[in-house]
Design brief:
Number of helices: 13
Helix content: 25-40%
Distance between the termini: 27 Å
Oligomer: single chain
CATH architecture of the largest domain: 3-Layer(aba) Sandwich
Structural class: alpha/beta
Strand content: 15-25%
CATH class of the largest domain: Alpha Beta
Order of helices and strands: EEEHHHEHEHHEHEEEHEHEEHHEEHEEEH
């Protein structure tokens, strides 16, 4: 396969008119994936730097994940949370052990995990007799999901439009401003919900000073500190859990996306007194922790036990960042200095250019990339991407940039 022209052939796109038109899908119909590559129905190959939006950490169709899914599906697919079942219990034990936390609640997505975190924070205060401590504080630029509760904690007016009135009891504070945080956290704050790296707003990392201030202020004023690691967790920025990179321990954190390497699962992981805040009848979900996605997540963790993925992410993440930095230097009129860490990187696009145009031209050169908020190209490839594939991607990206700027 020619590494430059693959993906550039004619594309036949099968359309499904009954799919609700709430997504601006690219004109491509993917039928198969293998490792870091995707293939469309016309046989074109695409080097995938999106990974299902930071989901397929171990790539597409990983044989061990596939086998774990098949074996569990042949044993038990669903039984509900009315009884104990495996492998959800084992997965909860493993996550708690790896994090040093006390309890795990399973659901089906990142938004649901953040909904659970919001309810946990308020119930924790309520059980402590602090009925006025019910404000969920989030950061400007945040994205925590699209359900009404998670959306209320999301600072993006475009996502709010037409869905009001949203639930009350939410407030926002400037991101990476410890002084503003000092002013915002008070006796009414149930929790500060924050992403260690803001993903949807354009890959913006929190500073260590900001998160350290958050930990200190929450401790001093009785609020919970909750990290949204839905996108930046599970090894994406160089450690299994994002808070381990910062060496700051929250009271709870949320996971989803890559936990089961492509199957729907979310998790709220809690420590300390807050771990007992949700009691029978307080919260639940029919499918949360179902055996098949839990089995996939367990196998994902088992693979990490024998593969030094963190060291690999450091090496290839550094290489990808260097390639993006070189591109920013070579095209200073089009790009700013890249942001992010590990394999969660963003390349800010200068006006008047639009990130989505580079995405379209990249697709024609066999490269699948993504545009995120603040006019940014976001790079969240499978964590198993090789150094050669990173270099290949950089060549394709440069060709796409040249074509976009010439258009």
């Amino acid at each position: 396969m020619n590494p430059i022209v693959a993906g550039g052939g004619a594309r036949l796109v099968t359309r499904h008119p009954h799919l609700m038109q709430n997504y601006g899908r690219l004109e491509i119909n993917i039928v198969r994936g293998e490792g870091c590559w995707l293939y469309d129905e016309s046989g074109n190959a695409y080097l995938d730097l999106v990974a299902g939006i930071a989901v397929c950490a171990l790539g597409h169709a990983h044989p061990r994940i596939t086998r774990a899914i098949a074996e569990q599906a042949a044993t038990l697919v669903h039984v509900s949370n009315l009884v104990h079942h495996e492998p959800a219990g084992t997965l909860a034990d493993r996550l708690a052990e790896l994090a040093g936390f006390d309890a795990v609640f399973f659901c089906n997505s990142g938004a649901e995990a953040n909904e659970a975190a919001i309810k946990l924070a308020r119930k924790h205060a309520w059980r402590a007799g602090e009925r006025e401590r019910n404000v969920i504080l989030a950061a400007h630029g945040s994205f925590h999901g699209r359900t009404l509760g998670a959306l209320s904690a999301t600072d993006n007016p475009a996502y709010h439009e037409g869905f009001g009135p949203l639930p009350g009891g939410f407030a926002f504070v400037d991101f990476n401003d410890p002084a503003a945080l000092d002013d915002a956290i008070d006796e009414r704050t149930a929790c500060f919900l924050v992403e260690p790296v803001q993903g949807e707003s354009g890959v913006v990392p929190a500073t260590h000073a900001y998160l350290a201030a958050a930990r200190r202020l929450c401790d001093e004023r009785g609020a919970l500190l909750i990290f949204d690691e839905v996108q930046c967790g599970m090894g994406r920025i160089g450690r299994l859990f994002a808070h381990q990179v910062y060496d700051i321990v929250p009271d709870a954190f949320t996971l989803a996306k890559s936990l089961a390497n492509g199957l729907p699962i979310g998790a709220l992981v809690v420590r300390g007194a807050a771990a007992a805040s949700l009691q029978p009848g307080d919260h639940g979900t029919t499918f949360g922790g179902s055996p098949v996605p839990a089995a996939a997540a367990l196998e994902h963790l088992a693979i990490r036990d024998v593969v030094d993925l963190d060291a690999h992410v450091e090496v290839v993440g550094g290489l990808l960042r260097a390639e993006l930095l070189a591109i920013a230097r070579d095209f200073p009129h089009a790009f700013e200095v890249p942001r992010g860490t590990g394999l969660m990187l963003g390349l800010p696009v200068r006006d008047p250019y639009q990130a989505k145009d580079f995405v379209r031209f990249a697709l024609d050169r066999g490269l699948f990339i993504n545009a995120a908020g603040r006019n940014t190209l976001r790079f969240v490839p499978p964590l198993i991407i090789s150094a050669d594939e990173v270099r290949d991607a950089a060549v394709r990206l440069r060709l796409a940039i040249a074509a976009t700027l010439a258009a």
